[in-house]
Amino acid sequence: MIHKVFKVLQTHGLRGLIDVGLRAVFRMPRASFRKCSPFFVGKGLEIGGPSSAFRRGGLFPVYAVASRVDNCNFGHLTIWEGEISDGATFFFDEQRLPGTQHVAEATNLCNLDTGTYDFVLASHVIEHTANPLKALIEWIRVLKEGGILLMIIPHKEGTFDRWRPVSTLEHLLDDFNRNVGEDDLTHLDEILSLHDLSMDPGAGGEQVFKNRSLKNFENRALHHHVFDTRLAIDV
């Protein structure tokens, strides 16, 4: 896979590499999960989670067919999962042995070898990443040849982002080229002005939400970027 990455980079440059990676990311089979399930019978890595969409009875019940799912989360304490411990502590399914829990940035999986996983999962994660293209390159890197990346991304119209403008590929590329870190708060003013608190009851009032947002590097609750169907298709 690394050979292919370098070949695309030499032939088409950075923009070509990003385009190829994103097209692979957002291309999902138009069949039922039953027909797609053979892609997920091996070993996978989930970024964030565990996610209800991947559980038995969920939208894409990957956990039910996977032989193993490891996990990567950004810290040892999250507002979604509470305390997280490294090791065999990722309990994704009651009928499977736990997977290995890694604590690392989604944009830097340096402790994971290239071509390790049959699939990578990420549900409602990419919008929380300040440098999504950097993250996507890492997620693709750890996939085996022919592996699949399955992402679930919130559409702006169904979330508290509905008043914010959709991000552009050019903006994502600029973040990548500037090597934006996860402590970035470039979008904070926009978020504080346009975040629809009525659709985010867990955020509290305006001052509580602002205080939490200022500590985003600790909690990673902000949506740095806003996605819709058109953006997913265009890339």
Give your account of this protein's structure.
The protein has 235 residues and is an alpha/beta fold. The protein has 8 helices and 8 strands; from the N terminus they run ααβββββββαβααααα. The chain has a 6-stranded mixed β-sheet. A two-stranded antiparallel sheet has the order 3-4. α1 (2-26) packs across α3 (132-141).
**β-strand number:** 8
| Average pLDDT taken over every residue | 88
**Spatial arrangement of strands, main beta sheet:** 5-6-2-1-7-8
Distance between the termini: 21 Å
Strand content: 15-25%
Provide key terms for this protein.
235 residues; 17% strand; 8 helices; two-stranded antiparallel ribbon; 31% helix; disordered N terminus; six-stranded mixed beta sheet; alpha/beta
Produce the secondary structure layout.
Elements: H1 2-26, H2 33-36, E1 43-47, E2 68-73, E3 77-78, E4 82-83, E5 87-90, E6 99-103, E7 117-123, H3 132-141, E8 143-152, H4 169-177, H5 188-194, H6 206-214, H7 216-219, H8 229-234
Helix pairs in contact: 1-3
What's this model, at a glance?
31% of the residues lie in helices and 17% in strands. The chain has 235 residues and is α/β, with parallel strands linked by helices.
